[in-house]
Design a protein that fits this description.
Length: 255
């Protein structure tokens, strides 16, 4: 089975600075691999280890993808190779442009049986790339998957819903977005980090995928942090029915 796990690099949330006008300043932010995407990579590794096959990592974004530390960071988690589409024209790419770029890359890689995505990106969290990627590739696509099993050349997947577990059988090739419940991503050892530097990396630009000049269909005019609200500092002391009722009424009023 040839598996591709998609990931996105995102700015470190702890480095975010909110300006007085509520705009966001990411200028000093370190870049990291999206936490949700690490579960997709781990799911791909477990499937390839259990059923055989290979795992390829794939990402599309700006030239930040060329960072050697980030490339080692993803390859040290198990993928045999890495494909990146590093092009500054992908700065602020919307979900459709990202999905279109990934779809073109998957087609160019060729003979892919399964594409795995995280449940959403750690920055925008639109949860749209996986489903749009499946549509563009013409593959069956399932999101919110919490378990994957290979059975008779097909996939048996589970989705944990509000009051039931849904079990679905889907043919390959397919695109699946996994939840964070599916696994606990492995922490690479020093040996794996050093070995990652020797794994093959293929870099393309948008022109290599015949996508040059095709920008996002949407434009972000502004992103603002929520207005800060002062704490109410209302204290309720005691555990009597009267105190609990007052607490309930105040909570209900605020919500």
């Amino acid at each position: 089975m040839k598996i591709v796990a998609c990931y996105k690099i995102v700015p470190e949330e702890q480095d975010l600075i909110i300006r007085p006008d509520r705009t966001l300043n990411w200028e000093r932010a370190e870049w990291k691999i999206g936490q949700y995407d690490l579960c997709a990579v781990e799911a791909g590794m477990q499937l390839s280890e259990t059923n055989g096959g290979s795992l390829t990592a794939l990402s599309a974004g700006t030239k930040q993808l060329e960072n050697s530390k980030l490339k080692k960071g993803i390859l040290s988690r198990g993928p045999q190779d890495l494909f990146i589409i590093a092009d500054d024209a992908l700065d602020n790419a919307d979900a459709f442009q990202t999905a279109s770029t990934l779809a073109a890359a998957v087609n160019k890689i060729g003979d892919v049986d399964l594409v795995l995505c995280g449940e959403g990106s750690s920055d925008l969290y639109t949860q749209q790339v996986g489903v749009q990627l499946g549509e563009l590739l013409g593959y069956p696509v399932i999101n919110a998957v919490s378990k994957i099993t290979v059975q008779d050349g097909k996939l048996l997947v589970e989705r944990t819903l509000e009051d039931e577990v849904e079990v679905l059988q889907i043919p390959l090739p397919a695109v699946i977005s996994v939840t964070t419940d599916i696994n606990l991503p492995r922490i690479p050892s020093m040996k794996e980090i050093l070995a990652a530097g020797k794994k093959p990396v293929t870099q393309w630009g948008l022109a290599d995928l015949d996508l040059a000049g095709k920008g996002s269909a949407t434009k972000i005019d502004s992103t603002l942090a929520p207005e800060q609200a002062d704490r109410k500092r209302i204290l309720f002391e005691g555990d009597s029915e009267e105190v609990i009722q007052k607490l309930y009424e105040n909570l209900r009023k605020e919500l």
